[in-house]
Amino acid sequence: MESYATALLYATPFFIGLVLIEILYGRFVKDQKHNLMDTVSSLSSGLTNVVKDSLGLVLILISYPFLLEHLALIEVKATWLVWIVAFIALDFAGYWNHRLSHHINFFWNQHVIHHSSEEFNLACALRQPISNLLGYYALLLIPAALLGVPHKVIAVLAPIHLFAQFWYHTQHIGKMGFLEYVIVTPSQHRVHHAINKEYIDKNLGQIFCVWDRMFGTFQEELDEVPPQYGVLKPANTWNPIIINFQHLWRLIQDAWRTKNYWDKLRIWFMPTGWRPADVKEKYPISIIKNVYNFRKYQPEASSSLKAYSLFQLIITTFLMLFMFYNYAEIGFDGLLLFGAFIFVGIYGYTTLMDRKIYAVWIEVIRGVGGLTLIYFTNDWFGINSNFSMGSYVVALYFLITIFGGIYFTYFERSFVAPDLAS
Ligand SMILES: [Zn+2]
Ligand SMILES: [Zn+2]
Question: Could you tell me the distance, in angstroms and rounded to a whole number, from the CA of residue 122 to the centre of ligand 2?
Answer without folding.
Answer: 9
